[in-house]
Give the backbone structure.
Amino acid sequence: MLCPKCQNTITDKALFCCFCGIKQSGDAIRFKRDHGTGTISIDLRNKNRYIVRAPVSPYGGVRKYLGSYPTHESAEKALTDYLNKGRPDLFSATVGDIYSMWSAAHFRQVSKKTADCYRSLWKHFSPIASMRMTEVRIAHFQHLVNEHGGTGVACGIRTLAKALCRFAIENDLLDKNYAEFVQLPKTEKVEKQTFTAEQTAILWRHTHDRNVQAILVMIYMGFRIGEMTTLKTESVDLVGGYITGGIKTVAGRNRTVPFPANIPEIQQFVAEWVRNAPLNGRLFNMTEHTFRTKVFYETLIKLGMLDAEIDHKGTVIFHSENHLTPHCTRHTFASLSVAAGMQPERLQRIIGHVSFRTTADYYVHVDRGALISEMSKLVRNCP
């Protein structure tokens, strides 16, 4: 027979190997390996005597059986291939474990607002959080989406599910992204409201109010509300005639937004803000929530443009479902720009959207002068 350790031929009745000294027994013999690299044991009673098992998962559970092999070399190869394949320590990982590892890396690359959004969406994954990631299928994700109908939450759940599946695929836990096949319930598209000519005329009659100025800058430059609260004096180039700013997406961050040449008041408003900026350099030294409530909604209520009220806790109570929101300023900006004949790919760059066309985003290069030229096409949309 062969010695299970050194593979030299010895007599069938030998109690010990005359070459390596190992005891010959019908019991399983385990070869010493480095910690965390799995085990190879031998059972002389089996034809394929070399038994291979994966490393113990840090999440507990039974050590994964990888198979039995006729020679020690074939067993070593099988274990090496398994270790090289990816992350065997993730084999028993739950959906919650995958979320923790994915978020730890991903949240360092996104804004705090985006990370908070993902944290909020994760709460809806509680029904499957304790399931093994390898066991989750389309039906599980589809159920989470169906619970929220055609809302934005449903779309967010699918987005997060896709991200978790991609992480699992990269670590050899899944063969495909099951969340890609999740269907969102069909809903009727609600047309976003824009500021009318009459409404912007009201704003222009009250430009002595700094809050009104802020709303007009959003309407004629397309900044998001979160972008307005992060603008600093260093973001403004009054000589060059543009602001560098933006958040959220790669296309939206640090983009160039020129002042509209035909509406000089917009640059004048910003110049005044720069001159009176506090020591920290922020043009609006407030949170996004305060800006939304105090600057936007409170101003529109005061001007009679919004049927709502603000209670003692600072909560806005709307008396109509169809009302203006801060994001309506971006829709107004886009509508005015298209009406003025602005080139679509240049509008995409100014407004900070990722998708117009892949070609426009990655292969069409627009210089700053061209963007300034496009912004000069904007004019007041009021009498």
In short: The chain has 14 helices and nine strands. The chain has a mean pLDDT of 81. Strands lie at 29-31, 39-42, 50-53, 65-69, 236-237, 242-245, 255-258, 308-310, 316-318.
